[in-house]
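Lab notebook: predicted structure, single chain.

Context: the supervisor wants predicted structures on file for every construct in the current expression panel, including those that have not yet been purified. This is the next one on the list. No modifications to the sequence; it matches the entry in the shared construct table.
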Amino acid sequence: MIRSKKLSKFKNITHGFFGSRGGVSKGIYKSLNCGIGSKDKKKDIKNNLKIVINKIKSKNRNIFLPKQFHSNKFYYISKMIKVKRVKCDAVITKSKNIPIGILTADCAPIILYDPKTNMIAAVHAGWKGAYKGIITKVIKFFIKKGSKVNNMVIAIGPCISQKNYEVKGDFLKLFLKQSRKNIIFFKFSKKKILFSLKDYLIKQIKNLGVKKIEYLNKDTFSGNNSYFSARRSLSKKQNDYGRNISLIMIN
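Prediction complete. Output recorded below exactly as produced.
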């Protein structure tokens, strides 16, 4: 697990970006696979989630994990409720002792905190969610709830780096159709088109006036880092992959 230096300054919240180590899963899911939707053994996934809960020292034994579908939808919770997983890609709350989290395997995990309004959010931003403005919608909701952009602190966790994020021509066209200025998020190398997800997200965040931004520079695709990666699994012709969990809680 790694933490944001900026967020770690606040003692009334607990957060963490977890990788693939420290769990009980076997094989391609080795070892801290928290992917509820993966084909891993359900018992192992539950035990891994318990490990995460213990690591953040939460009294609440449940993590509020949404059913992600690469959207710009978010869900605001006022208390822990026993319902089926909510379909959205961001969770927001001001309630204490409710760990909120998201799962990733190359997509960007984003954690937000406003110490003045004491509101937190966990955001799953793949290229589709980023393109649809998931982070923009969450920040605007914070503002609607009384937050000032100068107070917000945002950490972007481990995600796939530009050098390993090869895309096709139609992907490039889609982003250029949105704005010709999006060309700055692409590199062209040896007939390859490479996309920077984190830079695209940081630009959206800065466009709204948020300045306290931290990027935890870990590439999920790289074999040197201990993170699950959907693209790496695909390159190895594996039929599934584990998921990294990132979460935050108000103590």
